[in-house]
Design goal:
- There is one protein chain.
- By secondary structure, the protein is an alpha/beta fold.
- It has two domains: 162 residues, P-loop containing nucleotide triphosphate hydrolases (Rossmann fold, 3-Layer(aba) Sandwich); 71 residues, no CATH class.
- It contains nine helices and ten strands.
- Helix 5 crosses helix 6 and helix 8 packs across helix 9.
- The longest helix has 20 residues.
- It is globular.
- It starts with a strand and ends in a 7-residue tail after the last helix.
- The chain binds adenosine-5'-triphosphate and magnesium ion.
- Adenosine-5'-triphosphate binds next to strand 1, strand 2 and helix 1.
- The site of adenosine-5'-triphosphate (ATP) has 12 residues, from strand 1, strand 2 and helix 1.
């Protein structure tokens, strides 16, 4: 379970006069996401969706508020050098009643993030990309042997339909295939949470629908198995959000805060043309329209 508790993010920026100025990117966002759910974050450009997603991942610290995953506080990534470790301990010494206790108890969260630009390594083949992710995850205790890594990597490449492409480099793959590769890599570490920032924005409409269905299929499989995955997805595509999600969170324009939470209680598999789905899409459009013009031809 993910719990975001009153998350606020404040940036200092330099304005055109060269003066420092405050910018509130996310304001007081509280949200609980149970295990095995798909939640979409929808909202106008610049309303703080990516910032909020990175805070969920522990890639950015919130100015105020806390993220808990399975009841444990999310902290910034673990330090890798001794100097960083000292700084880290100093920073967190007031959080725990025991000095340095946080460091000792630091929970490990199983989160994989898919960035908008897929972020696969161009100099590695599809198979090597996944292998590398597994190697990073397995540094230290519980190392996976090379053969086991290869087997796992191939399994997930097959899952996303890239079984035949394992020796190709990202530049030899289409945009949709690269996106699948990023998905396979995220899945291969078998995370409990997958965070996706506009994952399907760069592919054509048909490929996007296929990828959405593939994602649902893989996600359904995890629900039968031992790890029901949570997916949190940022998207600009209202239809995508409604089709995929158990809940759509609509952000208000900046500073980003939750404008509406829309549960989608429609059984899967869903039909894209289902009147109920279309109706929810129209309600969301109406909200955006209202925010822009302060009027709408649809009662909200
Ligand atoms: N590191 C930063 N320093 C200063 N301002 C930032 C920083 N990162 C983001 N912002 C500002 O915070 C606000 C929210 O940005 P964010 O990227 O979260 O928006 P977004 O909702 O993801 O937008 P989009 O839909 O266009 O991707 C924007 O006004 C942005 O300029
Ligand atoms: Mg963004």
């Amino acid at each position: 379970m993910i719990e975001a508790k009153s998350i606020t993010k404040f940036f200092s920026v330099v304005n055109e006069k060269g003066l420092a100025e405050g910018l509130t990117a996310v304001l007081n966002v509280s949200l609980t996401i149970p295990d095995g759910k798909i939640v979409s974050l929808l909202g106008p450009s610049g309303c703080g969706k990516s910032t909020f997603l990175e805070i969920l991942a522990g890639l950015q610290a919130p100015t105020d508020g806390e993220i808990h995953i399975d009841g444990k506080l999310v902290l910034e990534p673990l330090p890798s050098t001794r100097k960083e470790m000292e700084a880290y301990k100093r920073r967190y010494r007031f959080i725990s009643p025991l000095a340095n206790g946080v460091f000792r108890d630091r929970p490990k969260h199983d989160i994989a993030m898919i960035f908008q630009d897929y972020a696969v390594f161009p100099w590695m083949t599809a198979l090597q990309n996944i292998n590398f992710a597994l190697k990073l995850r397995n540094a230290g205790a519980g190392k996976m042997a090379r053969a086991a890594r290869n087997e796992r990597a191939r399994y997930y490449l097959n899952q996303v339909g890239l079984g035949e492409q394992e020796n190709k480099y990202p530049s030899q793959l289409s945009g949709g295939m690269r996106q699948r590769l990023a998905l396979a890599r995220a899945l291969s570490v078998e995370p409990k949470i997958i965070l996706m920032d506009e994952p399907f924005a760069a592919v054509d409409a048909l490929t996007r629908e296929k990828l959405q269905d593939d994602l649902l299929k893989i996600w359904e499989k995890t629900r039968e198995g031992s790890f029901p995955v949570i997916i949190v997805m940022v998207t600009h595509d209202t239809a995508e959000a409604v089709y995929l999600s158990d809940e759509v969170i609509v952000f208000s324009p900046s500073p980003g805060s939750i404008r509406n939470r829309i549960p989608i209680d429609i059984k899967r598999p869903r039909a894209r043309s289902d009147p109920e789905i279309i109706d929810i899409q129209e309600r969301i459009f109406a909200m955006f329209q209202y925010d822009l013009n302060q009027e709408s031809d649809y009662s909200i």
